[in-house]
Sequence to fold (366 residues):
Amino acid sequence: MAVIKKPQIPESPHYRKLVAALAGELERDQPDSLQPAPRIYEEEQRGKFLNVTVVWDDWKEVEREERGRIIMDAYEQQRPNDVMRIMVALGLTQNDAIQLGFHVEIEVSVTKEEAVDSYVRGADRVLEFLCDWLLSKSIGVSFPLGPGPIELDKLPREIERHIDELFTSLKLTPKKIRDGDTVNPSCIHWLVFADEYRQAEIAWRVQNPILHPAS
Amino acid sequence: METWPSLHRAAMERYWDGVDLATSTEVRRTAAIYLLGYVTEILLKVAFYRVIGFPPGQEVDLQAIKTHAAWKRTNLHNLDGLADLLIAERSSRGMALDPAFAGQLKACALTVADHWRETLRYRYTVATETELVEVYQNVDWLRANATLLWS
Fold:
């Protein structure tokens, strides 16, 4: 019988670029929260093995198998000592991650106008965003609340009340920042977590907070 | 008496039953998914028993999985748990899967699990075409790569 030779599947055009970008992200100590960077999750397993899941939209057009190879090549470049520990290399997009029930953080900025609008008009706009996310399973919301520091305990109570109602109706658990903390308003983000049971948890998170003691 | 060869044959039977339902002129998509989900479960279990060295003629004790150190779930129908078990077992035996392939396996199990539970039989629901296609594609991938799971 004749030998049928099948050539190796060629790399996608962006293969090297994605490897370099991911390797760069591995090199970085702190994620740059303002950039749409890949989210890299390393779960330690029994026997010191690692399951690596990378959530990244830049490889939307790349086959899943190739995403795994990109992860392995990036680790080979940046963390060669860990390569042999990797048991699973799984590459997902944000939508994949949410659909498959991974714990994932999602941030999407809205325009300044939308942010101001949401603040001025109260909770409706915020709820609209949150509900849109829950329906579409695709976004979280990040919005600056205005010029200069604000005190969280002076946030409109109406917003909190609406959010509490939303949490209650969706059986969600809110996490709260301490009342009285003040933060850089451009650093307030909504984070949306989807756990393996596909219940979403919506939480406040403050990035790079400028904390002052509550008076 | 269930052995891994008999389980494998059952998986193939359920696969073709599922394909029949999926391609039926009647709308039998939920039933197709119900059977195809079991194909995933059985193929993962077959691979596990082969990896741990069960001879073809030895009866498999399905409950024994629960006592296995790498088993982290409670429900033996948990597809993600079964994929994790297989991946971990192979690694601990020095016959780890290629991590990229293991990632595909995990994604496959999770995708099927996204649409399938063994309790689907209790639900009055009509699966969408998209759900059926997602399940079928992943089960078919698993069937095509079944040998790689244990070899």
